[in-house]
Amino acid sequence: xxxxxxxxxxxxxxxxSVAFQLSDTKKTxxxxxxxxxxxxxxxxxxxxxxxxxAQVGELSGRLETLVSALLEAExxxxxxxxxxxxxxxxxxxxxxxx
Length: 98
What we know:
This protein is mainly alpha-helical.
């Protein structure tokens, strides 16, 4: 039982670390999208500038897709946390019953 409790604590620490990394990545990605929006708002007269602007738009779209995936990962992480909390509560209940 003690080993299981230790494993749960390690898994919770891992989930916390992943949550922090997801949050940080999401913030950085949104910052990049904001910066790209400023670039795409500029007027590009040359063909090279217009091509660059198109690439900026494409990259911004890909980053938006990344943000969606990060949000989905956060939801999955939340479900995993809930399952861990439920398992921990079950272990505690069994421990109290014995």
